Automatic annotation (TrEMBL):
One Pfam family of this chain: PET117
Organism whose genome encodes this protein: Mycena pura
Any single biological process term in GO: mitochondrial respiratory chain complex IV assembly
Name by which UniProt lists this protein: Cytochrome c oxidase assembly protein
InterPro entries in UniProt: Pet117 (IPR031568)
Homology family: Belongs to the PET117 family.
Superkingdom of the organism of origin: Eukaryota
UniProt key word Mitochondrion: yes
Location relative to the cell: Mitochondrion
Presence of the UniProt keyword Transmembrane helix in the record: no
């Protein structure tokens, strides 16, 4: 193999390896981005469920208060 062919083969291998490395890094970054986004989606869903639970508890508390006030009215104090 002549030195020119050897140089071309080395250059081709270096270009191929560089391209493969760039692609691999890009692919890894995309995967990390997707993983991080799923974490945000899970956090949003958890917050939504928590707020719904609090709203349900508040509604239940209001209903209990109304039923208790029917049995025993509450007088408002001047304090």
């Amino acid at each position: 193999m002549s030195s020119s062919r050897r140089a071309k083969a080395t250059l081709s291998a270096a270009i191929g390896l560089t391209a493969l490395t760039i692609w691999a890094v890009h692919f890894q970054q995309e995967q990390q981005h997707k993983t991080m986004y799923q974490g945000v989606v899970r956090d949003d869903e958890r917050r939504r469920r928590k707020m719904q639970l609090r709203e349900d508890e508040l509604q239940e508390s209001r209903q209990k208060r109304e039923s208790y006030e029917k049995v025993q009215p509450i007088e408002k104090s001047g304090f």
